[in-house]
Amino acid sequence: RVKLSVFLRGFDAEIAGQIVGHMERHGTRMIRDTTPQKFEKTEDGKIKVEFKNTMFGNKFKEEFDTVVLAVGRNAVTEGLDLSAAGVEFNPKNGKIPCVDEQTNVSHIYAVGDVLDTRQELTPVAIKAGVRLAHRLFGKDGKPKMKMNYDLVPTTVFTPLEYGCVGMSEELAKETYGEENIESYLSYFKPLEWTTNHAAHENGTMHREDNACFAKVIVNTADSERVVGLHYLGPNAGEVTQGYAVAMKMNMTKQDLDDTVGIHPTVSEQFTTMTITRSSGEDPQSKGC
Fold first, then answer.
1. Whole-model pTM above 0.85?
2. What's the confidence (pLDDT) of residue 155?
3. Which of 195, 206, 275 is nearest to 26 (CA)?
4. In this structure, are residues 30 and 24 in contact, taking their beta carbons and an 8 Å threshold?
5. Residues 6+ away with beta carbon under 8 Å from 229
6. Could you count the other beta carbons within 10 Å of the beta carbon of residue 34?
7. Separation in Å, CA 8 to CA 15, 59, 162, 163, 193
8. What distance in Å separates the CA atoms of residue 207 and residue 284, rounded to the nearest whole number?
9. What is the DSSP code (8-state) at residue 163?
10. Is 206 a catalytic residue?
11. Quick check: bond before 97 cis, omega within 30?
12. 214 SS3 class
């Protein structure tokens, strides 16, 4: 059971909505516009939660077997006495603004989730740390590489997994202008799903037709350069990782069209997409 404000804030809104819809159809109840106010342990070991509706102000209570709080992360820098060292930090979140991991104090560096406006991802921290260490101490003659925080691929391991590289459609329009952005769309059903005909009690198939989704966002003013690639379906991390390399190499939609897909795979969808949002055509698949 989930309290929802903005689902997957910062990610592509269209796909976030599809994830919510999929979870609801498959049994997850979303309690919207509501915040928990109080938790009480009942005599029978359950947890009674008092909620407040943020729109109307009314309160109500429900009991649950388990309550999990997704409270986010804290930079935990308040005990470091950064001011004494002259290090500037964001007072709102305790994070440190840096350029190439270097703080405003030239001999003090920071790596990982403590950096302001950087991705809170372990592989990002590892690569940034390795490159920083090599720049400072490396003597092997290899180039001193800086961390590139653009086009970092990521996957959200929701029940229907979501992988993406680059911009959301909203950010792409804000960055390049709505008139310069086009999205190629494709709904589909993985071939292996066709062997599962089980359904929930509400009649929803466990493996629905056209539940999976692929979206390629291009900048039409720049040879249809791909600025965002999004995938919703099984094994999202495996699918997305390779396309991150291609986007680092400035992939265009034509590069995808020129690539021969491996049949029958879900990743093949990205090599055969022809329907655009502006066309108004139905992007749902009619067969495998």
1. yes
2. 97
3. 206
4. yes
5. 164, 165, 166, 215, 216, 217, 240, 243, 247, 270
6. 20
7. 9, 26, 11, 12, 26
8. 15
9. E
10. no
11. no
12. strand
The whole-angstrom separation of Cα 129 and Cα 108 is 13
Please tell me the predicted confidence (pLDDT) of residue 4. 47
- Tokens encoding 274: 């022809």
**248-254: long-range contacts at Cβ-Cβ below 8 A with a sequence spacing of 24 or more?**
248/151, 250/225, 251/225, 251/226, 252/218, 252/223, 252/224, 252/225, 252/226, 253/184, 253/216, 253/218, 253/224, 253/226, 254/223, 254/224
Burial pattern 78-95, b for ≥16 Cβ within 10 A else e, equals eeeebeeeebebeeeebb
Alpha carbons 173 and 182: distance in angstroms, whole number: 9
Q: The dihedral of CA 140, 143, 146, 151: what is its sign?
A: negative
Q: Give how far Cα 176 sits from Cα of 168, 182, 220, 228, 244, Å.
A: 12, 11, 10, 12, 20
Helix/strand/coil (H, E, C) string of 217-274? EEEHHHCCEEEEEEEECCCHHHHHHHHHHHHHCCCEHHHHHHCCCCCCCCHHHHHCCC
| Mean pLDDT of successive 10-residue stretches along the chain, which has 288 residues | 68 95 92 91 96 91 93 86 95 94 97 94 96 95 94 96 97 98 96 87 85 96 98 96 96 98 95 96 81
3-state secondary structure of 50: strand
Q: What is the pLDDT of residue 288?
A: 55
Find the catalytic residue in 26, 107, 206, 263: 263
pLDDT reported for residue 287: 62
Side-chain half-sphere CA neighbours of 83 within 13 A? 5
What single letter denotes the amino acid at residue 9? R
Helix or strand holding residue 173 (H, E): helix 169-176
